[in-house]
């Protein structure tokens, strides 16, 4: 069973920064595109950001564009989500996920992702 493992969540004040990480099995990290999603209580899981295998392949949801940055480190088999200028509405459980890299147009769709982590809680206080 493929397991993705997120870490780095926590409590931060509004305006602060946090970086969450996702360790990915090697055979997944080397081939798949990676995405971050989040789910707040009582809400649907929503797309945040994704990155393909090539530079410049990043895409973002409008709600986080300019504040969040997704990146990947092939040597460490890790995907990161750097979150700056956090707002209370960013409070959610954050999930990383892996999708076949072929169609960038699908990166924003939950249904495109084959593998998911268990999530890490991010809480932003006002």
Task: Give a short synopsis of this structure.
The chain is mainly beta and 126 residues long. It has one helix at residues 26-29, and strands spanning 5-7, 10-13, 18-23, 33-39, 46-51, 59-60, 68-73, 78-83, 92-99, 115-116, 120-125.
List the helices and strands and how they pair.
Layout: E1 5-7, E2 10-13, E3 18-23, H1 26-29, E4 33-39, E5 46-51, E6 59-60, E7 68-73, E8 78-83, E9 92-99, E10 115-116, E11 120-125
Parallel strand pairs: 2-11
Antiparallel strand pairs: 1-3, 3-8, 4-5, 4-9, 5-6, 7-8, 9-10, 9-11
Question: Keywords for this structure?
Answer:
11 strands; 126 residues; mainly beta
Structure explained in plain terms:
This protein is mostly beta strands and 126 residues long. It is 3% helix and 44% strand. The chain is built from 1 helix and 11 strands. It has one helix spanning 26-29; strands at residues 5-7, 10-13, 18-23, 33-39, 46-51, 59-60, 68-73, 78-83, 92-99, 115-116, 120-125. The strands form 2 sheets. Strands 2, 4, 5, 6, 9, 10 and 11 form a 7-stranded mixed sheet that branches. It has a 4-stranded antiparallel sheet with strand order 1-3-8-7, with no helix packed on it. A hairpin with a 6-residue loop joins strand 4 and strand 5 (46-51). The radius of gyration is 13 Å and the shape is globular. The N and C termini lie far apart (39 Å). The mean pLDDT is 95.
């Amino acid at each position: 069973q493929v397991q993705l493992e997120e870490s780095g969540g926590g409590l931060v004040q509004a305006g602060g920064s946090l970086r969450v990480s996702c360790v990915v099995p090697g055979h997944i990290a080397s081939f798949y595109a990676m995405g971050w999603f989040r789910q707040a209580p009582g809400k649907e899981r929503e797309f945040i950001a994704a990155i393909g295998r090539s530079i410049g392949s990043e895409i973002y949801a409008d709600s986080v564009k300019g504040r969040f940055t997704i990146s990947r480190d092939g040597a460490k088999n890790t995907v990161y989500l750097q979150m700056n200028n956090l707002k209370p509405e960013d409070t959610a459980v954050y999930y990383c996920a892996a999708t076949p890299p072929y169609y960038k147009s699908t990166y924003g769709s939950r249904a495109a992702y084959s593998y998911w982590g268990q999530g890490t809680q991010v809480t932003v206080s006002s």
